[in-house]
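Technical annex, item 7. During the second reporting period the consortium partners agreed on a shared format for inverse folding records so that results from different sites could be compared directly. Each record opens with the tokenized structure and is followed by the designed sequence. A conforming record, contributed by the partner at site C, is shown below for reference.
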């Protein structure tokens, strides 16, 4: 068992090197407790998506993941404190400025009947938690607006959001 602990510590050390060299960024799960932020799983985003594509052995379409990565990089230029929110559902990003939540963003490559409830429910849960009235859902090319549980969710295509 001690070998496994050492191996995990080595992996964590290598990942911290990748973060320190700005190849990867890690986004923690939002929690008011910093200790819980450290122990909860973090999402990983690449600074250079081309490097990821060259080194990826994926045989599936990663368009959704790449879109989420692009939105993260855009948010990173605007906000220092970025988290993901997870409760019953998940909201991809909640960004803060000086301790105040500024924006909640969900990313979905293509909204359809199969994923609409999941995407909206995760967003509404985050908006309720932070007592916010509206959120943003970024897609590849769709534009729409939804009202759910008294919350307004604006759907924007990525090319408009990233301008």
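Designed sequence (site C submission):
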């Amino acid at each position: 068992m001690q070998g496994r602990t050492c191996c995990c510590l080595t992996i964590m050390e290598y990942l911290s090197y990748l973060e320190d060299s700005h190849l990867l960024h890690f986004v923690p799960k939002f929690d008011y407790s910093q200790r819980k932020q450290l122990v909860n799983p973090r999402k990983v985003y690449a600074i250079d998506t081309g490097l990821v594509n060259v080194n990826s052995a994926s045989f599936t379409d990663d368009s959704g993941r790449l879109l989420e990565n692009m939105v993260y990089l855009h948010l990173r230029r605007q906000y220092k404190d970025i988290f993901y929110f997870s409760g019953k559902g998940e909201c991809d990003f909640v960004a803060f400025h000086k301790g105040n939540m500024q924006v909640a963003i969900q990313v979905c490559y293509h909204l359809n009947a199969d994923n609409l409830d999941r995407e909206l429910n995760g967003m509404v849960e985050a908006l309720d938690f932070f007592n916010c009235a509206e959120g943003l859902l970024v897609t590849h090319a769709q534009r729409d607006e939804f009202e759910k549980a008294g919350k307004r969710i604006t759907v924007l295509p990525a090319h408009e959001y990233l301008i």
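The mean pLDDT is 93. Helices lie at 2-20, 34-39, 49-55, 63-78, 116-129, 158-161. All partners now use this format for quarterly exchanges.
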